[in-house]
């Protein structure tokens, strides 16, 4: 799937004032992660499995 066709979102804790934000797009088999400051750079997109994303997210709690 093209990264342009994905539905990207940021955390509700992120603001539009810049800073260190990431955007996430969720697909059935892949979680896509990118830097919100460079959204059009497909070579700067990280793809992980849903299990890897879940382990990461649960470690933040």
What does this molecule look like?
The chain has one helix and three strands, in the order E-E-E-H. It is of the alpha+beta class and 61 residues long. It has one domain. Strands 1-2-3 form a three-stranded antiparallel beta sheet. The radius of gyration is 12 Å and the shape is globular. It starts with 21 loop residues before the first strand and ends with a helix.
Give a short overview:
Keywords: DNA-binding. By secondary structure, this protein is of the alpha+beta class.
Provide the fold topology.
Layout: E1 22-26, E2 31-35, E3 45-48, H1 50-59
Antiparallel strand pairs: 1-2, 2-3
Shape: globular
Q: What is the string of SSEs from the N terminus onward?
A: EEEH
Helix count from the secondary structure assignment: 1
Task: Output the strand order for the largest sheet.
Answer: 1-2-3
The count of domains is 1
Give a quick set of tags describing it.
single chain, 61 residues, alpha+beta, three-stranded antiparallel β-sheet, 1 helix, 3 strands, globular, DUF397, DNA-binding protein
